[in-house]
């Protein structure tokens, strides 16, 4: 009886190890780092005198962390999320997509591809070790270039110092 139980247990362990070793591994952005990056971007904009919201989404566009300055407009919540979602989804800065559509009117249909897309500057893809793990978006500064500068502050925190 004991031999049968021991054999069954070893067999299950072997099968479990076989399946576990064949699963792909995927990089992801830990929540703690996402929160630090949101805070860094929010601080940059606040220090510059802008009341904004900042959002970070994971690779699939699911919200990881978001914060709003108490004086930021209510629209900035969706704006920051949409810019982060757009950058995570397409792998490019949201402003680059806006410029591309502006220069090629036949691409205007991209705006309707997904209701979560916000095609305005202020969103950046988060790429760590050549792997896209999410997007960061800022909304509420008086200009897309200012939103993007704050997003870059959060992104820099995640990517570390340049070599």
Describe the structure.
With 163 residues, the chain is α+β, with helices and mostly antiparallel strands. The chain has a single domain, classed as Beta-Lactamase. 49% of the residues lie in helices and 17% in strands. It contains five helices and four strands; from the N terminus they run H-H-E-E-H-H-E-E-H. A four-stranded antiparallel β-sheet has the order 2-1-4-3, sandwiched between helices. A hairpin with a 4-residue loop joins strand 1 and strand 2. The chain is elongated, with a radius of gyration of 21 Å. It starts with a helix and ends with a helix. 39% of the residues are buried. The model has no long low-confidence stretch (mean pLDDT 89).
Core attributes:
elongated; 163 residues; Beta-Lactamase; 5 helices; 4-stranded antiparallel β-sheet; 49% helix; alpha+beta
Structure summarized in a few sentences:
This protein has 163 residues and is of the alpha+beta class. It is 49% helix and 17% strand.
